[in-house]
C-alpha cells in the first residue's frame, strides 16, 4: 500500500476545514453600524437616524406608516437582528419580500407584503405575521399563545426570520413563534417600520434595530417543534411539517374518498361537486329540486385539531358539525355540535337564538362567537375556520386565526347551555365519546376546501 505523506494529509485537512468554514460563514451585514448605506426611506415621514451603532426610527404625528427598506431585493434568506421598542402602545415590524405601490398614498407610495410584527401592547403578538396593506393578519398569535411570553418589553429582543421557498418562519429569543406557507412574493425588499401616528398618538417614540445580518446561501433551516401550528395558504395541500405532525387531508381537491351521504353509504350523485378544488354544495332553496343532503366522514373522531376554509354566497347558511352520531332515527337530520357557517347580515338565523349564538363561528344555538370586525372577510371570500377538541373535552373555535370561543363538553356550564337550547330534549347531546364530521346542506351554495385534521 502506498503511504500518504504527512504534508499531503495536512493539505487535505486544510481543504476540509476551509470548505467547512466557507459553508458556515455566509452571514452578511445589512447595516454597517455607521450609516444608512444600502437603505432608503419610503412612504411616510417618520425619521431614521444612526446612533451608537443602531438604526433608530422615531414616530412623527400625522404621518402614515414609514419604512426604511433595502435597496436590494432578496429571495431565500435567513435574517437575524435585535430590536427594541419604546412605549406600551407603539408598534413596529420587519417587512420580508415586500414591495411598494409607488402611485398610492397621493404619490408617496404604499409598502405591502408580509411583516413580522413587533407588538409591545397587552395583545403580545410579536413574531406573528401580518400582510401589510394587503391581506391583514396571516398568523395571529392566538394560534401559538405560549409564544406570547417570548418578547421582553423595554429590552432588545433577538429576531430570527427564515424565508425559504414558500415558507416563512419566525423565532423571538430562540422561541418558535409562527409558520406560514404562502405562494405570494418569491422576492422583495426587507424593511424596518415606524408605525403611523395620528393627531392623538404618541410622538417621539423610538424603535431601535441593530446587529442586522442575512444569509442568502448555504441556508440551514432551524428545527422547529412539531406542535407549532402551520398556516398553509396553498389550498388542499399538506406541508412536510404538517405531514410529520400527523395531519391528513379530509378533502384533497379532487376526490371524495373520505365522505359519504349521511343517509346512504355512498357520496350523493347530485347536489354536491368536488373535483375543481372545492367541495361545494349547490343551491336548491326556492326551487323544486330536492336537497342532496348532508355529507359525513367515513371515520369517527374524538380529540382532534380540525381546520377548513369556507366561502359563502350572499344570504347562505351551512355549518360543520362534529361528534355526529347517526342512527336510523336521525340519518336524514343528524345532530351534532355545530360550527356555524352563515352570512350574518342577510340570513335571518343570525337574529334568532339567544344573544347571537346562531351567528358565524358560534357553537350553534349554544354559545356566541366573540368576533372582531377586522377579522371578518367579505361574503365571497375564503375564510379559515379551526376547531380544536382536546382529550380533556375542552373545545375551541377559531375564525381567521383568532379564537372566538371555548367551552368544555359535559361540564355543568355546557349542560346548562344545552338545557336552554333547541336540543334540551336530546339526552346526552354533544357528549358522545366519538363521532363523525359533517358538512351541512341547508339549501344554499357554500364551498369548502383545505379540510385537514390531526388526531390528538
From TrEMBL:
Entries under InterPro entries matching the protein: AL/BT2_dom
Entry annotated with the keyword Signal: yes
GO molecular function, one term: hydrolase activity
Keywords (A to Z) from UniProt: Signal
Record domain 3-keto-alpha-glucoside-1,2-lyase/3-keto-2-hydroxy-glucal hydratase: where: 26-215, 247-454
Signal peptide: 1-21
Name of the molecule in the record: 3-keto-alpha-glucoside-1,2-lyase/3-keto-2-hydroxy-glucal hydratase domain-containing protein
Organism name: Sphingobacterium sp. (strain 21)
Amino acid at each position: 500500500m502506498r503511504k500518504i505523506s504527512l504534508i499531503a494529509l495536512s493539505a487535505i485537512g486544510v481543504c476540509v476545514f476551509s470548505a467547512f468554514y466557507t459553508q458556515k460563514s455566509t452571514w452578511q451585514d445589512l447595516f454597517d453600524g455607521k450609516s444608512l448605506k444600502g437603505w432608503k426611506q419610503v412612504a411616510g415621514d417618520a425619521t431614521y437616524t444612526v446612533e451608537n451603532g443602531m438604526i433608530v426610527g422615531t414616530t412623527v404625528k400625522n404621518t402614515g406608516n414609514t419604512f426604511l427598506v433595502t435597496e436590494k431585493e432578496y429571495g431565500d434568506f435567513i435574517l437575524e437582528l435585535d430590536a427594541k421598542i419604546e412605549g406600551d402602545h407603539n408598534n413596529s415590524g420587519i417587512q420580508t419580500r415586500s414591495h411598494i405601490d409607488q402611485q398610492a398614498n397621493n404619490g408617496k407610495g404604499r409598502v405591502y407584503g408580509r411583516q413580522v410584527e413587533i407588538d409591545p401592547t397587552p395583545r403580545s403578538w410579536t413574531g406573528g405575521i401580518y400582510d401589510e396593506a394587503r391581506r391583514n393578519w396571516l398568523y395571529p398569535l392566538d394560534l401559538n399563545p405560549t409564544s406570547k411570553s417570548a418578547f421582553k418589553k423595554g429590552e432588545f429582543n433577538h429576531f430570527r426570520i427564515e424565508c425559504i421557498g414558500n415558507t416563512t418562519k419566525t423565532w423571538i429569543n430562540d422561541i418558535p413563534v409562527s409558520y406560514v406557507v404562502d405562494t405570494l412574493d418569491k422576492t422583495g425588499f426587507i424593511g424596518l417600520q415606524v408605525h403611523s401616528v395620528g393627531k392623538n398618538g404618541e410622538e417621539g417614540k423610538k424603535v431601535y434595530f441593530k446587529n442586522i445580518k442575512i444569509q442568502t446561501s448555504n441556508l440551514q433551516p432551524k428545527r422547529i417543534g412539531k406542535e407549532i401550528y402551520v398556516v398553509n395558504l396553498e389550498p388542499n395541500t399538506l406541508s412536510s411539517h404538517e405531514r410529520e405532525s400527523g395531519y391528513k387531508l379530509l378533502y384533497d381537491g379532487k376526490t371524495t374518498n373520505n365522505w359519504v351521504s349521511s343517509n346512504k353509504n355512498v357520496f350523493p350523485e347530485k347536489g354536491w361537486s368536488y373535483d375543481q378544488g372545492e367541495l361545494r354544495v349547490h343551491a336548491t332553496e326556492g326551487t323544486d329540486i330536492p336537497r342532496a343532503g348532508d355529507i359525513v366522514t367515513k371515520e369517527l373522531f374524538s380529540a382532534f385539531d380540525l381546520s377548513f376554509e369556507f366561502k359563502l354566497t350572499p344570504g347562505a347558511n351551512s355549518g360543520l358539525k362534529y361528534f355526529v352520531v347517526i342512527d336510523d332515527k336521525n340519518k336524514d337530520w343528524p345532530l351534532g355540535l355545530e360550527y356555524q357557517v352563515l352570512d350574518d347580515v342577510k340570513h335571518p338565523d343570525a337574529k334568532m337564538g339567544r344573544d347571537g349564538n346562531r351567528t358565524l363561528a358560534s357553537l350553534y344555538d349554544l354559545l356566541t362567537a366573540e368576533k372582531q370586525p377586522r377579522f371578518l372577510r367579505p361574503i365571497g371570500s375564503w375564510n379559515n375556520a379551526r376547531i380544536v377538541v382536546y382529550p380533556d373535552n375542552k373545545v375551541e373555535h377559531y375564525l381567521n386565526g383568532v379564537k372566538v370561543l371555548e367551552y368544555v363538553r359535559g361540564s355543568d356550564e355546557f349542560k346548562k347551555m344545552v338545557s336552554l337550547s333547541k336540543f334540551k330534549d336530546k339526552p346526552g347531546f354533544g357528549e358522545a365519546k366519538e363521532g363523525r364530521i359533517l358538512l351541512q346542506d341547508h339549501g344554499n351554495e357554500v364551498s369548502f376546501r383545505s379540510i385537514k385534521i390531526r388526531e390528538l
